[in-house]
Amino acid sequence: MSTPYYVSPEQIRQDKEDFVRRGIAQAKEVVVLEYRDGLLMVAENPRKTIYKISEIYDRIALAAAGRIAEYEALRVAGIRESEIKGFRYYREDVTAKWLTNLYSQHMGAVAQAWDAKPLEIELLVCEVGITGSETASGLQRNQIYHIAFDGIYSEEEKYAVIGGRATAITEMLEQRYTDGLEMRAALRLVTETFQNIEADTDTEDGYEIAPDTIEVACLEQTAERRRFRRLSTDEVTALLS
């Protein structure tokens, strides 16, 4: 009888982590940051056939870096589960923290299965705060959750970045970000950061940051029930002009 082939759990975990990081390293970045009236979400995305930023529920949006097919499956599942919970109970019960736990459990289960490929994505689950007129508890702060491929998540403050060069972009934002930015200033900050990163990267395709190569959306505190709004190319052009 032959001896079964053995690989330690630590080695399997390390191999999966290396595999996912190589894939994420090639992904264009997504930045979410607070501005004066809510949360601004900007992604490097020259392709117009897909979205990396999407609405999930009234005050909740989802952004991803990595394999779009895997992100799309989670996006659809998140919308379905949110609608079911909001219908059965109250719409206020659907929160970013609840959705983050849902995604975390699924992504963690896939990553821990020894015979399954881990999901090659990172997620940002965002929820805009509620004004004092909408809740008895007063103003509720904005929430940004970062979920890694293995389901481990953390709550970020002010801004968050996912994608291949997330560390370098985060370091730039640490130096330049200030509280209370207007949307125009916040968008310019992100685009200038993208431009600096692209300038530091040797690329053969001559990739440039422009209104038609980025995807921009926001969660607005001042909007009605549905707070998500996707900005058109013309709107982005006007803000950057």
List the helices and strands and how they pair.
Layout: H1 9-24, E1 30-35, E2 38-44, E3 53-57, E4 60-66, H2 68-88, H3 96-112, E5 121-127, E6 143-147, E7 153-156, E8 159-162, H4 166-176, H5 183-199, E9 214-220, E10 228-230, H6 233-240
Helix pairs in contact: 4-5
Overview features:
five-stranded antiparallel β-sheet, 6 helices, 241 residues, alpha+beta, Glutamine Phosphoribosylpyrophosphate, subunit 1, domain 1, globular, 10 strands
Provide a descriptive summary of the structure in words.
The chain is of the alpha+beta class. It has one domain: Aminohydrolase, N-terminal nucleophile (Ntn) domain (Glutamine Phosphoribosylpyrophosphate, subunit 1, domain 1, 4-Layer Sandwich). Helix content is 37%, strand content 23%. It has 6 helices and 10 strands; from the N terminus they run αββββααββββααββα. It has a 5-stranded antiparallel beta sheet, with helices on one face.
Q: Please count the helical segments.
A: 6
**Could you name the CATH topology?**
Glutamine Phosphoribosylpyrophosphate, subunit 1, domain 1
Task: Tell me the radius of gyration.
Answer: 19 Å
Count of discrete domains: 1
CATH architecture: 4-Layer Sandwich
Give the biggest sheet.
5 strands, antiparallel
The rounded distance between the terminal residues' Cα atoms is 73 Å
Strand content: 15-25%
N-to-C series of helices and strands: HEEEEHHEEEEHHEEH
Structural class: alpha+beta
- What overall geometry do the principal axes of the alpha carbons give? globular
Please state how the strands of the largest beta sheet are arranged side by side.
8-1-2-9-10
Which spans of ≥5 residues are poorly predicted at pLDDT below 50? none
Helix content: 25-40%
Number of strands: 10
Question: What is the typical, i.e. mean, pLDDT?
Answer: 88
Question: How would you name the CATH homologous superfamily?
Answer: Aminohydrolase, N-terminal nucleophile (Ntn) domain
Name the assembly state.
single chain
